[in-house]
Amino acid sequence: MKKIFFIPIIGFTLLSCVDDTPKCDSEEVKSTVLEIIKEARLKSLDNGFTKTGNEELIQKGLDTMTLNLITTKSINKEIKNCECQGVISGYPLNSDEIIEFFRNDINIKDHEININFSAQTTEKGKTIVNLEPINIFN
To answer: pTM of the full predicted structure?
Structure first.
C-alpha cells in the first residue's frame, strides 16, 4: 500500500515542476509572430494594386519573410512571460517592391527590420504573442 501512495506523489511533484513559460525561439511563437506581421503587412499594402492580378507575387513576397537572430530579453516564470527581440528578414516595403523583386529575381532577404515581441502562456495553456508597435506597417 505504501508503494501505491508513493508513486502518485512523485507524479504530482514532477508535473508541478514543468516549466510552461513560452520560449522566444519556439516554433509556435516564431510562426505566430510571422503570421501577425504578414497579415498586418497585407492589409497595409495598396488594396487597389493587389487586385490587378499580382496577388500571387505579393503573397510570395510575404512568404519569404523569416524571423532570425532571436534573443530572450527577459523571462518571468511567475506570469509565464518572455520578452524577446529578433530580426525579420525579407520584409517587403511595398507592393511595387515585391513585384519588382520577384519579376527580376532580386533577393528580398536583404531587407531587414528589428522587432520586439513577447509571449505569454494563459491559465488554459494557450500562448499569446504580442508585437511592440513599430512603424513597419505603413
So the answer is: 0.71
